[in-house]
Design goal:
Blueprint lengths: L7 E4 L5 H12 L3 E6 L3 H13 L4 E5 L5 H15 L4 E4 L14 H23 L7 E5 L13 H21 L5 E7 L14 H5 L10 H12 L10 E4 L6
Parallel strand pairs: 1-2, 1-4, 2-3, 4-5, 5-6, 6-7
Length: 246
């Protein structure tokens, strides 16, 4: 449990799915964890209770990634509550799939605001308070690298842009001793994309290991990247998708 003892982490979109698994894993590794939620206060409170039940420290913050001010305020609230910030995990995002001819300007602006602008703003705000050993991890998608079907242009665009952001921030923040990386999950068993859902068999057909991942699989990769052993890993991409992109 001592790997992240004394560290403070902020996980955006930490009330459910992959975000909740990340929040719980970082807390299990010793970090105090703030997590944001947009519309799930009960689920956020459940994550906080789970962490506190094992003598961890946690804080839930209402913040919609669509609201630029709320994202920066969440960083400030985390520091106010815990006194510091060492780890930022940009997890919150939306998935919008439609043929390009059906996409609207509002669809574009909302997707980019939530999936890209918010991680940029959160990273900028967090980095200003991080010292040597700071960690920033963004949750991308394996569809940033390979687009397996139609209707994904907008989502893939938003997640692919995280790659460029990660590489640029790694250069900017490396001199301060802050690492910046991106993790690309593939099909992961959550309530938004259940392993028993209507499109699950088609997703499994793409994989080298034909099973949906568990949110804990992604959380384990994030735990590695936020720990001391990953101090020389930065500007890099890590795909956790059962070999779908192999």
């Amino acid at each position: 449990m001592s790997g992240l003892m004394g560290k403070v982490a902020l996980v955006t979109g930490g009330s459910r799915g992959i975000g909740a698994a990340i929040a719980r894993r970082l807390a299990a590794d010793g970090a105090s964890v703030a997590l944001t939620y947009a519309q799930s206060p009960d689920r956020a409170a459940e994550v906080v209770r789970d962490i506190e039940a094992t003598d961890g420290r946690a804080l839930a913050i209402q913040a919609d990634n669509l609201d630029a001010d709320a994202i920066e305020a969440a960083v400030a609230r985390t520091i106010e509550h815990f006194g510091r910030l060492d780890i930022l995990v940009n997890n919150a995002g939306i998935f919008h799939a439609a043929p390009v001819e059906e996409l609207t300007l509002d669809d574009f602006e909302k997707t980019v605001a939530i999936n890209l602008r918010a991680p940029f703003l959160a990273s900028r705000a967090a980095a200003a308070h991080m010292g040597k050993g700071g960690r920033i991890v963004s949750i991308g998608s394996n569809m940033a690298i390979r687009v397996p079907g139609e209707g994904l242009s907008l989502y893939s665009l938003s997640k692919a842009a995280l790659i460029g952001m990660t590489k640029g921030l790694a250069r900017d923040l490396g001199p301060k001793g802050i690492t910046v990386n991106v993790v690309h999950p593939g099909s992961t068993d959550t309530d938004m994309n259940p392993a028993g859902g209507p499109g699950a068999d088609g997703q499994r057909a793409l994989m080298a290991i034909p099973r949906f991942g568990d949110p804990a699989d992604v959380a384990a990769m994030v735990a590695f990247l936020t720990g001391a052993q990953a101090g020389s890993v930065t500007g890099a991409e890590f795909t956790v998708d059962g070999g779908a992109n192999a």
